[in-house]
């Protein structure tokens, strides 16, 4: 059995026993989750020669509550981290050595003993609208006008619901669930006039052509971490933590830190529409936009703050605090 030697140095004892291969990777079983896991394994094995072997990894598909509950709005089953609990448990039990997540599905406060060791380069963070047969071709000057008056929009996201209803109060929103492919099918067969999907997921599935309309991040503020893949490990696993840290994308870490600090400061439930989107500029400053809204779109509060990349966490916290202070009492009740 070969060992993970890439980090064996004279100081090796601080890495603990060292891992033997295969490394066990935890993932959800949706096509998108499996794609993201393979993508990550490709990156890590490109960096670490000993992991290029076909048998270097063992994939463990873990079903989460979020995968099993297909009918209710996620908010109503009440959990944060609904897509990760079972995966965190497998990590802490030693059934897996690391786990690959969509960062936006990962709660801001991870359980004790688990750390986010690696973030991959962000895919396009925008939301796409999937247009069904009842929608006409979008017009450049007024793209949303192609959705018929009063049409039914499928979304399980109060963030998307609040923002689309603020732009088009005549529309109705109902819950659509299922993986990317299932949702596309429900729009195609007319269950919904249109729906939303993250462009990142569509691109990764080779389904970018299904994006009928792309919404600018200013018009539809994305979720914190949207488009970023994150990898968790046990906090005690210094060896894997260091290896993962070496391949992470610096920009993704900075923007995710700001966005997740904003989300954490608001401490909303998943019933609270919250958006958070940061950009890193060439001069090393970041611009962070936060959105807090009422689910019916009757109130939207949006602010943008700027600061140094090194202050990403503080910038996010302060902008979150500002949104909280300014919002009407019912929104974070
Ligand atoms: N909540 C489900 C989920 N988690 C991550 C993505 C897409 C990929 C990403 O945002 O990184 C999706 C689907 C969607 O929101 O359309």
UniProtKB/TrEMBL annotation:
Q: Reaction catalysed by this chain?
A: 4 porphobilinogen + H2O = hydroxymethylbilane + 4 NH4(+)
Mind telling me which InterPro entries this protein's record contains? Answer: HemC (IPR000860), Porphobilin_deaminase_cofac_BS (IPR022419), Porphobilin_deaminase_N (IPR022417), Porphobilinogen_deaminase_C (IPR022418), Porphobilinogen_deaminase_C_sf (IPR036803)
This enzyme's EC code(s): 2.5.1.61
Q: Does the keyword Transferase apply?
A: yes
Query: Has the keyword Transferase been applied to this entry?
Result: yes
The top EC class, named as a word, is transferase
Cofactor-binding details, from the entry? Binds 1 dipyrromethane group covalently.
PROSITE patterns recorded for this chain? Answer: PORPHOBILINOGEN_DEAM (PS00533)
Q: Name one GO molecular function term.
A: hydroxymethylbilane synthase activity
Query: Which prosthetic group or cofactor does it need?
Result: dipyrromethane
Keywords tagged on the record = Porphyrin biosynthesis, Transferase
Write down the superkingdom of origin.
Bacteria
Which stretches does the entry tag as region Disordered?
1-22
Q: Which residues form the Porphobilinogen deaminase N-terminal domain?
A: 23-241
The Porphobilinogen deaminase C-terminal domain sits at 256-323
S-(dipyrrolylmethanemethyl)cysteine: residues bearing it? 270
Cite the annotated pathway. Porphyrin-containing compound metabolism; protoporphyrin-IX biosynthesis; coproporphyrinogen-III from 5-aminolevulinate: step 2/4
Quaternary structure annotation from Swiss-Prot or TrEMBL: Monomer.
- More about this protein: The porphobilinogen subunits are added to the dipyrromethane group.
- What biological function has been recorded for the protein in this entry? Tetrapolymerization of the monopyrrole PBG into the hydroxymethylbilane pre-uroporphyrinogen in several discrete steps.
Instruction: Give the UniProt family note.
Output: Belongs to the HMBS family.
Name the UniProt record assigns to this protein: Porphobilinogen deaminase
